What does this fold into?
Amino acid sequence: MKIAILMLTHNAPRYVMKTLRTLRMTEGVDYEVICVDNASRWQTRMVVMGAYWLGLVGRLCMSKVNTLFAGGNNLAAKLASDDATHFLLLNSDIEIRRKDWLATLISHHRRGMTSFGVVMGNPINRADGYCLLLDRDIYERYKLDENHQWWWAITKLQVHALRDGFAVQGFREHEGFLHHFGGRSGSGFIGAKGMDVQTEEVITWFKGNSITILDGSTSGSIRKILR
It folds into this structure.
């Protein structure tokens, strides 16, 4: 198993540095880091280019335009090595707290997608997208819908997976493994396609399907708590 970590950057250089620095502690997993910089200001571009030359980033794309969340991850996915079996969508405002964070996520993964982070009842339980592990072929089958950005692109991805019988599960408690600062890249998504989806429409997407919620402790023990 090899994990291609897909990471988008858009400004917030201090948090990008923290993500890349703490990511280095990861042990027990074969992985590569693929970064797409979404037209950041020069400070962040210098950070990611430096990380590339230091070997912290394996493959780097410096986009001249902000491809946003869906487009950027779809671009990063195309850059993954042929032998990568899984993709991990990882935000660039993360602090890794345990060296076995990724091994733990993998050990509880079922074919489909597994996340550190769950959005509860907004308007329906769904896996968050800041640390989301997927089988490569499943991602490539559906891809992120570039007509729906950010959380709705992630939501539509898991809707497709649930519809076709794949697992979608997420850790509600995961602070012992990693911390997501959130919102550090600013408001570049405002006005993007598909951000005005109404609650009633999202409920119809799921067609009665639901994700599995897992509870993780700092000791690494996991249990299913809700279906």
Observations:
- DSSP finds seven helices and 13 strands in the chain.
- The domain at 3-226 is CATH 3.90.550.10 (Spore Coat Polysaccharide Biosynthesis Protein SpsA; Chain A).
- Residues 42-54 form the longest helix (13 residues).
